[in-house]
Amino acid sequence: MVYRVKRVYDPPAVEDGLRVLVDRLWPRGLTKEKAKVDLWLKDVAPSTELRRWFHHEAPLFDEFTARYDAELDANPAVAQLRELGDTHPVVTLLVGARDPELNQGVVLERYLEHHPR
Fold it and tell me: What pTM does this model have?
């Protein structure tokens, strides 16, 4: 299984495999038809409090990563995402964030690859 991270605003591609939106909020200005999202798994997204605290500010990313990892440790939606990875060769984690390096999708991808079940 392979997890990838991609902006939901980028055009869908065949190599995306299963496209899973991992944001708590639906991306602004994007229709469901254009997004081509197979599953919206908002429960795996950071909590509203954490999302608001981070606000995609680069100096806070390391602390955001630690806090989000702690949330993921206790989040049952992670198991659902792992099951999807078991049944699909590629799962693309879709995020609405502008920054391709500093977002919850990057943290979630790392978490899935490096934390045991």
Answer: 0.94
**Strand ranges across the sheet with 2-7:** 2-7, 90-95, 18-21, 39-40
In tens, the pLDDT along 72-85 reads: 999 999 999 999 99
Kindly report the three-state secondary structure assignment for every residue of the chain: CEEEEEECCCCCCHHHCEEEECCCCCCCCCCHHHHCCCEECHHHCCCHHHHHHHCCCHHHHHHHHHHHHHHHHCCCHHHHHHHHHHHCCEEEEEECCCCCCCCHHHHHHHHHHHCCC
